[in-house]
Automatic annotation (TrEMBL):
This is IQ motif containing F2. GO terms for molecular function: calmodulin binding. InterPro entries: IQ_motif_EF-hand-BS (IPR000048), IQCF (IPR039887), P-loop_NTPase (IPR027417). CDD domains: IQCG. It comes from Phyllostomus discolor (pale spear-nosed bat).
Length: 159
């Protein structure tokens, strides 16, 4: 046996005996008389509570949105940092290659100039040894190496 109230305030009595419905009785529920002041107070309390629930839900939603925004800003900052780092690494690699190439070119130019000076010295020495002079003269050399030039000065001195 069960008693249930419907939403419209009707009482439904269902009697079940050996899986048969014997009788369904509808009865009106008695309502108590409530004063209008109490109804207004209840309405105000319910409105306050609903407002509190809405404000709490809005606060939680705002906090969640703030957390997502903080995370997104962190991701954007991290991505920008990685992009700057990659650009810097690319710049460093390019600059290192340029410096290496410039160094190799300077080395080749100095080596080429050095070979020219050696060739000139060997030609001078060859001619000097063939030259038969009665006094023995000395060859004095002085070499100056700069970033762009190799200067070689030869002096012939008599003792």
């Amino acid at each position: 046996m069960g008693i249930r109230f419907c939403t419209k305030g009707n009482l439904i009595l269902v009697v079940v005996k050996e899986e048969e419905i014997i009788e369904v009785v509808k009865m009106k529920r008695k309502r108590k008389k409530v004063s209008k002041g109490r109804v207004r107070a209840a309405i105000q309390i319910q409105a306050w509570w609903r407002g509190t629930l809405v404000r709490r839900a809005l606060l939680h939603a705002a906090l969640r949105a703030w957390a997502i925004q903080c995370w997104w800003r962190m991701m954007l900052a991290r991505k920008a940092h990685q992009k700057r780092r990659l650009a810097l690494m690319s710049y460093v690699v390019r600059e290192r290659a340029v410096v290496k190439l410039q160094s190799l070119v300077r080395m080749w130019r100095v080596h080429w100039r050095y070979c020219q000076v050696l060739s000139a010295i060997s030609i001078i020495q060859c001619h000097w040894h063939r030259h038969d002079c009665q006094t023995c003269a000395l060859l004095r050399g002085h070499c100056v190496v700069t970033a762009t030039h190799l200067q070689f000065h030869i002096e012939i001195t008599n003792p």
